[in-house]
Amino acid sequence: METAALTEQDREEFRRQLLSWFRLNARDLPWRQTRDPYRIWVSEVMLQQTRVATVIARYNQFIQRFPSLVSLALAREDEVLTLWSGLGYYRRARLLHSAAQLLVNEHGGSLPHTSQELRRLPGVGDYTAAAIASIARNEAVAVVDGNVERVLTRVLGKAAVRRAGLPAQLKETAGWLLDPTAPGTFNQAMMELGATVCLPHAPQCADCPVRQFCATKGEHVVAPRKQIVSRQTHYALVKKPAEEGSKRVAVLLAQRPDSASQMPGMWELPAIAAPESSEPVLRIRHAITNTNFYVEVFSLKPEEFLGPRHEKAMERHDWVVDSKLSEVPLTGLARKILMRLDVMAKPREVRSGKALPGREGDFL
Ligand code: SF4
Question: Is residue 358 predicted with pLDDT exceeding 60?
């Protein structure tokens, strides 16, 4: 097969240019130092919808605590969620955990070898299965995530994409382009190109190793942007001394209902109606997918909060000592608030982390 834009000869050159660019420019990321399918699986799940800079710290902590599939399978869910805290999309962590348990209980504790078998695991879609199988097992299967889709759409050009229709054409082209002698490296190189050069709004075409094969050089099919919704929310920061005479403080947290559609069972600051006569101690904006939350946090004394007005909110609550907050599965917003207000220590990586583009995958 040749595409409307590329000949077979172009393909050879495309592979060569891309792979030699990747050898020189690949970011040094912890999951690139292993071929262990379990570790690659963890990294791929974390990278879906989360920035690389955020994932690096979380990945290292997660692998330190759960170095193997078996150790993850044996862990309690709340411990897994705690280590996931800050990554968001907690359903990913629950599915990863339940898939690990399934593998240990029914498949001898190791990951299947082929992308087709991997695809049957809870939470593993085409993208994740292809990434694990190609990187860890050298299977010649192409990965098509958001980054690869963007690169291919631009390389092929609008006309070719329209003629053939998305996404079938992209999958087919990705498979045709894939270098069967180094499928894992080729897939990573395509994703890296999309994440660092062929950027969504400002492609760096002058630095692109496959520029000569690109039909658009920056012009591309742009998906319509989702409408952004704004919401206002208010939370209470309620503190008390952890023990009499102790410098440590305990913070009141509320647990989200198990039936909640988002982040069930996670812990957060208690939500309140805005107090009429006090100023917030913190105002922040927190974005989740297409919603901007404008958040105000009010500092309340325990006796102010524990009145009858808040009885319902108190049904699932607990006091947590500040030194133990990092062991609780907190929502990303709760972590952000507690760190901004210096109630919870910031990890070193968060203090100095530079945001890098992440990977858009097939998850959720
Ligand atoms: S030339 Fe530009 S638009 Fe084309 S693939 Fe490279 S970075 Fe993307």
Answer: no
Q: Residue 16's CB: how many other CB atoms inside 10 A?
A: 12
Query: Pocket residues for ligand 1 (CB within 6 Å)?
Result: 151, 154-155, 197-198, 203-205, 208, 210-211, 214, 216-218
Q: Which atom of ligand 1 is nearest to the CA of 151?
A: 5
Going along the chain from its start, the domains and CATH numbers come out as 8-213 (1.10.340.30), 229-352 (3.90.79.10)
Tell me the per-residue pLDDT of 243-252, one tens digit each, with 9 for 90 and over. Answer: 877 788 999 9
pLDDT digits (tens, 9 = 90+) for 227-240: 888 889 999 999 98
Q: Which of 14, 18, 21, 155 to mutate to test the pocket of ligand 1 (most atoms within 8 A of CB)?
A: 155
Q: Rounded to two decimals, what is the model's pTM?
A: 0.70
Q: Round the average pLDDT of the chain to a whole number and report it.
A: 86
